[in-house]
Amino acid sequence: MDRANIVDEGCPAPPLPTLRLYLQDSYCFQEDATIVAVRGNSVAFDRTFFYPGGGGQPPDEGSLRAEQGQVLEISSAFSDPDEILWHICKPEPKPELVGLGAKLILNRERRLALMRYHTALHVLNTVAFRDYGGWITGVQIAPDYSRIDFKVEGFSAAMCVEMEKKVNAVLAENHAVEALYLPEEEFRQRDDLLRTLEVKPPVSHGRVRVVEIKGFDAQACGGTHVRTTSEVGKFSIFRTENKGKINKRLYVRLDPKGSPVTGYK
User: Fold this and answer.
1) Same structural domain for residues 84 and 28?
2) Dmax over Cα atoms in the chain, in whole Å?
3) pTM (2 d.p.)
4) Beta bridge mates, 211
């Protein structure tokens, strides 16, 4: 397969009750929105760039400033069965906020860190799968370090060193990172787009979101990523654990300085 064209052409994004800006632009950190519902300690907007969590990536954090002046902290977010995205707020929002405009403000540095780790883990899991036959059995992303579990035969310290070198080489190649959608039926025919034994692909309205690292890899993913691999910074594996006979856990850390990021909004 020509690795420069892993996914040739996608389809339109699925229609969702909450417009999810992060699916098109991970670098949007402030946005005006309209409050459409209040339920307990949660608020829903007509649009948002807050990621609700999933695939090992935690929900975003930040705040909202309603047009009448009230400021609420947003500590988390989640998507309900109807695919409405709710933002958990403190103090508890009042019902009279419905219909008002608000400015959403994301914790930018936290989001950027999560984006860098998420892209780095895509590179790592591709190296592990391609070169060592490793399948992901678990992942947890955090702003200061992340961990990933693999089902892999014959794991060794030498293998760990090799993987780290290979990941850093790919990151330095400055691959573009893009997201697109495939019809679910087409996705099911592509056994090269799924790397995990535990997590279901992000299917919505018969479409699957795929994140492609141009010229290197493509896989199903609903999370946020950097624009190029060179933004990730230096990658290191700083600890390993046995989680069963052939299940290994790797703890990874990135150089906190990373590379300059442009396009802040």
Assistant:
1) yes
2) 61
3) 0.89
4) 179, 219
